[in-house]
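RESIDUES AND SHAPES:
===
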Amino acid sequence: MTALLDDLDVLLGRYHGDVRATYDDVADRYDRFRALWLRLAGGEAEQAMLDDLDDTLSPGQSVLDAGAGTGALSREILSRQPGASITMLDLSPRMLARADDLPAVKTVGSMLEIPFEDNSFDIVVSAWVIETVADPIGAVSECLRVLSPDGHLYYSFCSLPDGWLSLAGSALLRAAVKRGFAGSFLAPEHTPWHDCDRSHIRRFRGGLTTEIALRKCCSVGPETLPDAQAGRRG
């Protein structure tokens, strides 16, 4: 584990500045980091999101990959359903440029002001993004806004683990993610989540990563946040 964390620290370097500049700077090496991140911590949460997608994805559906980065998740979606219509949204032009080969609409923009009309997409997905924005609740609210009335929203993110042992054990990894990718680890009170019979929340690695599924009817306003502690966990 120590050797892997050392590799991660070297890979990240010491980037500073705003989020767009950070990701423009790291675009050429992001895929290497992403593979390492999935190995260290994120693999189970992302797999849970892909399993949810398998249950809902069908030919011809419109899918927004919000915070698409270099297109790793979009590639996975197209490998599972080549007939899907993919739109990739990301704040960093250099990240999107790494996905030039993908048959997808590519748009530079922020999750806090998604540049599409209400009810535009059958599915919205977002992997490892909401923890990098100033307002995670606002970002998920925007995803719900552009979701169609019968649509599905799936997102995975870094979250604060449960208990002091997990907090201590993940301290180096959390520091590296914060320093290298402007990523925080969301506490329950900052987690966009709505507990209803059409949603679910799943936490992995002692709570270090989380995957959530919501529907259009869900709300993630401040009044729903106490439910994060009582949500169904798999």
Summary: The beta strands are 62-66, 85-90, 105-108, 121-127, 147-158, 200-204, 209-215. The first helix runs from residue 2 to 12. DSSP finds eight helices and seven strands in the chain. The longest strand covers residues 147-158.
